[in-house]
Each structure stands twice: as structure tokens, then as C-alpha cells.
Amino acid sequence: SPASSSSGNFSQFTPDSATSPHSASSSPQPAAEPQKGREDGVGGVRKAKSRTAFSQEQLQTLHQRFQSQKYLSPQQIRELAAALGLTYKQVKTWFQNRRMKLKRCQKHSLWGERAQCLMQVGAQPGPSLD
């Protein structure tokens, strides 16, 4: 049976190999150190990514698109990224962050102030808020 003959391969099928009892001794990383997302293969240290500075034209286009469509398909993200000279990941991340900003705004606003909050956030893009 595959389970009994390949006990060394069992850890690759577990959701979190750091917590697997089979991978503790063969893991190149210390067992006590939790794994965090994507790490660099050498030493587990990654240089911090710099913040993307969007131009006013890019922000205006992103905001206009967000007002009409909160979620984009992967193909729509690719098309918008190409049109704006941005990467797929930048556009995807901008939309994710913008949806969370909208959610926070709605959560902290009173029901009567929600429309005003939406108008302010959508119409007045602040350079430090995006």
C-alpha cells in the first residue's frame, strides 16, 4: 500500500508539514519556528517590498473601475494592468485593499452616513490612503 511503503512522503501531503510528526527530523528549518507564507529559500529572510507609488491617472482609472465593478476576473485584471502599465499583482492587490477599505468604512459608519462615506472615499482618493 502507498501509505505503508512511503512514510517519508507522507509529510508532503499534509496541509502544514511543519506540524507533521514525520517532518520534524527531516525538515531543514527548525521545528519551533513557524512558517510564514512565502519565504526566501536561503535563510528564510526576505527583503521588504517597497510601496508602489501609483500615478494620479492610474489611481483615477482604478477608482473609476472600482465604482462600477468591485470584483474583477483574472482576465479583467490582466487587461487593466496592461492598460495602466502595472503588474497583475499590483492591480489585484489594489482591488483587495480597496474592498477592505470600503468594508472598514461601512463598518465604522452609521447607517445614515454610509452613502456619504462611499462618496468621499470614491471621489477623493488620498495619496496616503491607497
UniProtKB/TrEMBL annotation:
<protein>
    <submittedName>
        <fullName>Homeobox protein NANOG</fullName>
    </submittedName>
</protein>
<dbReference type="InterPro" id="IPR000047">
    <property type="entry name" value="HTH_motif"/>
</dbReference>
<dbReference type="GO" id="GO:0005634">
    <property type="term" value="C:nucleus"/>
</dbReference>
<dbReference type="GO" id="GO:0000981">
    <property type="term" value="F:DNA-binding transcription factor activity, RNA polymerase II-specific"/>
</dbReference>
<keyword id="KW-0238">DNA-binding</keyword>
<dbReference type="InterPro" id="IPR001356">
    <property type="entry name" value="HD"/>
</dbReference>
<feature type="compositionally biased region" description="Low complexity">
    <location>
        <begin position="15"/>
        <end position="34"/>
    </location>
</feature>
<feature type="domain" description="Homeobox">
    <location>
        <begin position="45"/>
        <end position="105"/>
    </location>
</feature>
<keyword id="KW-0539">Nucleus</keyword>
<dbReference type="InterPro" id="IPR009057">
    <property type="entry name" value="Homeodomain-like_sf"/>
</dbReference>
<dbReference type="InterPro" id="IPR050460">
    <property type="entry name" value="Distal-less_Homeobox_TF"/>
</dbReference>
<comment type="similarity">
    <text>Belongs to the distal-less homeobox family.</text>
</comment>
<dbReference type="GO" id="GO:0000978">
    <property type="term" value="F:RNA polymerase II cis-regulatory region sequence-specific DNA binding"/>
</dbReference>
<feature type="region of interest" description="Disordered">
    <location>
        <begin position="1"/>
        <end position="55"/>
    </location>
</feature>
<feature type="compositionally biased region" description="Polar residues">
    <location>
        <begin position="1"/>
        <end position="14"/>
    </location>
</feature>
<dbReference type="InterPro" id="IPR017970">
    <property type="entry name" value="Homeobox_CS"/>
</dbReference>
<dbReference type="Pfam" id="PF00046">
    <property type="entry name" value="Homeodomain"/>
</dbReference>
<feature type="DNA-binding region" description="Homeobox">
    <location>
        <begin position="47"/>
        <end position="106"/>
    </location>
</feature>
<keyword id="KW-0371">Homeobox</keyword>
